[in-house]
Design goal:
alpha+beta, elongated, about 35% helix, about 20% strand, 7-stranded antiparallel beta sheet
């Protein structure tokens, strides 16, 4: 049985991040509290999940989708027609997660995507350039964008003093 009948478009706003585009806001036909931990468990593009506040933000290209218990906001939408299509897709995602709730392990802890400083803090910070980047911070950005791998940092790969940091980075980056 589906959880939602619809996610009704309630408002559009100008998108400050991308002039000419809009933000669409929709109201789900039922509260999303119980399903957001399921969506957080299956969505590959999570920016942040805060179960205490009941918010989940996903990255989309371009923009973001943010779920609240009583609304959904989608940024950088071309027009109302695209907004309606996206709200329909959101409804379908929520209903799929709800229908498969017995097979999904819900996320109960807060999650957020690692930031460049989170990665940089675990790198050797020598700026040796052996990885091909000018700085360890540049390497951190490339790791987050999956354009470099941890094995390209020789200190992480070969120096036993950095093994624990390398293991933490591997876990952080998945």
């Amino acid at each position: 049985m589906a959880l939602l009948d619809n996610v009704m478009l309630t408002k559009t706003l100008p998108c400050l991040a991308d002039p000419g585009k809009c933000i669409v806001i929709g109201r789900p036909s039922r509260n999303l509290d119980g399903v957001l931990p399921l969506v957080a468990a299956v969505a590959p593009n999570i920016i942040a999940f805060n179960p205490a506040a009941g918010t989940l933000t996903l990255r989309r290209q371009p923009g973001f989708i943010t779920f609240y218990p009583d609304k959904v906001m989608i940024t950088q939408v071309n027009d109302v027609d695209e907004g309606l299509e996206l709200l329909e897709a959101v409804k379908d995602l929520i209903n799929q997660c709800w229908e498969q709730r017995d097979t999904i392990q819900p996320v109960t802890a807060a999650r957020r995507t690692p930031r460049p400083l989170d990665v940089w803090a675990l790198l050797p910070q020598t700026n040796c350039k052996v990885c091909g980047e000018m700085t360890c911070m540049a390497f951190a950005f490339m790791l987050l964008q999956a354009q470099r791998s941890l094995e390209e940092c020789p200190l992480l790969a070969d120096d036993p003093a950095f093994k624990e940091r390398g293991d933490q980075l591997a876990a952080m980056l998945g």
